[in-house]
Design brief:
This protein is α+β, with helices and mostly antiparallel strands. It has ten helices and 21 strands. The protein has three domains: 98 residues, 2-Layer Sandwich (Phosphorylase Kinase, domain 1), CATH 3.30.200.20; 178 residues, Transferase(Phosphotransferase), domain 1, CATH 1.10.510.10; 180 residues, no CATH class.
């Protein structure tokens, strides 16, 4: 990104640019002197004319709004938010306290080799900042914890900076925001799907600590069963390795439940509860579904269900009763001239339409064959009936936000139905409605794990 200011430039007759501190995902940050107070400040700027993504304005304004609410000694104080208009541009500025010290990335680059005790102390201090953020109402998720955003000074004080990726959970809940923000190597797998939870910050901190211990980006370390295989590359106690491994669990539910729990375990005030390996969900016995997985390809072949599930049997019974009574009624009308009144014809017509709808749903549900193919970049779902393909859905695998079972109310009973669903950004793709409950659970688990692997570990 082209520099907006040079040393010596004066902004709004108050801030003199001293140097460039760095460039983040949202804006460029300069060291500047406040000519009014004499203080050195960090001045972050975003140019409207040079902006490629309009989403950055929202992120920038959210950063300013949230920074104004934060009051913590380890978070640089917020001073001001303003904009400057020129004939050909509009620039937005955030002024805040300049954190004294150097980033962890710079310190490592200059030869710093922290030992386990130093890394632990650093982790404790950052965890206390995260606890503060997560206990706010609504909780604040930083989403970009990395070596460049943690400042350490000579006295050992730690500062967390650059809230350009920050997210308050109220915003996420209301808008369902799915912007992918963060830094490759330090992003938790869920961030690749545009999602973030409280433990997302724990993953970022764990990745940062791993960088301090290995002097490598976590993205460059090998993986085993979707996890970073860091143990052969570090010299730390087994207890600390176990703690770090839990911070870096790819599945959110397997990480510490909160930053407070992570801190308590690290300080020895609470025992570490290891994630017990979940039993692998096996293919249901006698199921004709074929699931094939190799490298970056997953194929699921679902043959016609027929009458092998209870749901298809219930639907068959409903069809038999409804259309049987309907056929008897029509026979009585035609042969015996019963109910042959004009006022009865409309209700009878409605009953015929309902019968046809039930029969169509039954035939398509029990006789259709479905094929789902998921690759690293794209997916395809096809449905076939009697050798003819009647539905094809294609899309980018990266657009799949969730793969899960969706519960709805049954239209023909008081019971609920569970549907197999691909949740995309703008629509849901539903299939396998009449499969057995175990089949649905099995294939959705396999598909979900595969999509998580594709999203989070490319």
């Amino acid at each position: 990104m082209e520099q907006l200011h040079q040393p010596g430039d004066i902004i709004t007759e108050r801030y003199r640019i001293l140097d460039t501190l760095g460039q983040g995902g949202v804006g460029i940050t300069y060291a500047a002197k406040d000519l009014k107070t004499g203080q050195n400040v960090a001045l972050k700027v975003l140019s409207l004319r040079r902006m490629e993504d309009w989403k950055k304005i929202e992120l920038f304004e959210r950063e300013a709004r949230i920074l104004a609410q934060l009051k913590h000694p380890a978070i640089p104080r917020y001073f001001d938010y303003f904009q400057v208009d020129t004939t050909d541009d509009r620039s937005f500025y955030i002024a805040q306290q300049l954190a004294p010290g150097k980033s962890l990335a710079v310190l490592i680059e200059r030869g710093w080799h922290p030992d386990e005790a130093q890394v632990k102390q650093l982790a404790i201090r950052v965890l206390k900042i995260i606890i503060y953020l997560h206990k706010l109402t609504p909780p604040v998720i930083h989403r970009d914890i990395k070596p460049q955003n943690i400042i350490l000074n000579r006295e050992g004080r730690v500062f967390l900076v650059d809230f350009g990726a920050v997210q308050d959970t109220y915003h996420y809940t209301v808008t369902g925001g799915s912007t992918i923000v963060g830094t490759y190597g330090y992003m938790a797998p869920e961030q690749y799907r545009g999602q973030a939870v409280l433990s997302t910050d724990l993953y970022g901190l764990g990745s940062t600590l791993l960088f301090l211990l290995t002097r490598q980006s976590p993205a460059d370390l090998p993986q085993r069963q979707l996890k970073i295989d860091f143990r052969p590359h570090v010299r730390i106690s087994s207890e600390f390795a176990d703690w770090l491994e839990k911070m870096l669990e790819p599945v959110t539910d397997d990480r510490f439940s909160s930053a407070s729990e992570a801190l308590a375990v690290l300080q020895g005030k609470q025992a570490l509860i290891k994630s017990s390996p979940k039993p692998k969900l096996q293919k249901p016995q006698d199921s004709p579904i074929q699931l094939t997985q190799k490298d970056n390809l997953l194929v699921v072949e679902i043959p016609p269900v027929g009458l092998r599930s209870k749901l298809s049997q219930v639907l068959a019974l409903v069809n038999l009763v409804w259309n049987g009574l309907l056929a008897l009624t029509i026979w009585m009308v035609l042969e015996l001239s019963l109910f042959l009144k004009s006022s009865n014809l409309i209700p009878l017509g409605i009953c015929v339409l309902i019968g046809l709808w039930l029969l169509t749903r039954f035939l398509y549900g029990t006789l259709s064959r479905t094929r789902v193919e998921i690759k690293e970049q794209e997916f395809q779902l096809q449905k076939w009936l009697l050798g003819s393909c009647y539905q094809t859905v294609k899309g980018n695998t990266g657009d799949i936000n969730q793969v899960n079972l969706k519960t709805i109310q049954s239209p023909i009973s008081n019971n609920t139905l569970r549907l197999c669903v691909f949740k995309l950004k703008h629509k849901d793709i539903i299939f396998g409605t009449l499969l057995t409950p175990l089949e649905k659970k099995w294939i959705m688990k396999e598909m979900g794990n595969f999509v998580k692997k594709i999203h989070g570990f490319k």
